Amino acid sequence: MAKTNDSHKADLNRIIESAKRMGVEIKEDEALQWLTNMAAYKESGQISLDTRSGVFGHNITMLDFSDKELEYFRRIGKIVEFEDIPGKVETALALSGSSAQSKIQTYPGDCDYFERINIIAPTRDEACNILAEIMRKKALDYLQGPDYQLIEVKFGEYPQDIVLGTREVKAGSPISWDPAQIREGRITGFKKDGTPVTVDWDDVKNNPGWCKLDWVVADPIRKQLANASNMLDVTWEAPGGDITPLDGYLDPYFQEVYLEASSVPIFSKLSQHVSANALEEYVNALEREVYKYLTKDVNYGKVAKRMYNIFRLTGKYEEAAFLRELFDEPSTVLYQIWSLIRTIDDAYIPGSSITNEQMVESTDRLILEVIRALEGDEETEIVKHLLNLRTALANPDARDMLTAEAEAARARVINIVNNFFYEKLVAFPTIKEYMDEVQTRSH
Question: 10 Å Cβ neighbour count for 74?
Fold first, then answer.
């Protein structure tokens, strides 16, 4: 039986009481509306289309999306997206991650995109040939421009152990290609015994694995840099209509907002092949990440983001509603700052089309954001590192200094972010119980 509005108000009152104890501001009308909508969508797997803006996605996902920045995301989407090739390649570009939750995440980290690419071909080998061709062409065509610079492409897996510089890489590891390697179409390294090894782009095309492209983009209006990534979910459509994911797994659609209504046909075709256990598999995958960020690469901001997605999909609406409000707290701007410091460091590569002026402007904005968000010793220490980073940007030979200052600033920022989220999360009893329970599991 569906909950009554009085029941939702009772849930909201409990959330408000908890939030007040922790100094978190709750927008009561919005939270009540969200709780009511979530209950209505609980049994629904339907897709919602916003006829005004032309975007669509899962009902629950669409509740968190605001079209306020839609033109900005569509503009960057023109850089990262793949084009359809009639009768051969069908595509559907979406926002994912914090970019798809713009209604609640006022301070998103990166511009995260997700693209479904369906390749129509007589054989799997031919589909892999087409994928290798269009990925390299995309990378070379969009290597750099006035407001963007390609940083790396993930494509294929190493067929054998290889030594790259001072780093040993195991066979089966994803391959990251930098711009120079993409131009050459090969990566050169050594075996442990010193024998030269060359991995060609075409050598790995039949096992494409994790396919992803990363750029740094410069917004001329905001005077801010951002990382823009496009994660690909590639499928092969055989002559009989059978659809097979090239990496062995067809991703579900619980966290994607598709940018064009014209993508509905390809989305509808592919979504029919998503596993019947997709929700359970998706939640399990998120819980593995929660475990990772609680126990290994400790990051309570990432824990909070993943728990929000778990809770809203598994009926823990009180917990989800509380987390929803956390992402809008002023302190969470530091999460964005943590991400953007890395972006500046990424952009500082030989021959980059991202100018020194653009990197300095972005650093200046970060300094102002830190001053607004912090005070005392924390503010002083982070601003000092950012000023040193700004100084390093003026010296083309100061790469090591820049990276060192960027990492020092990021370490201090993530420590503050971790403390903020940790204090809020453990103070909410059922959220703390959940985190404790996840940490006892063996993943």
Answer: 17
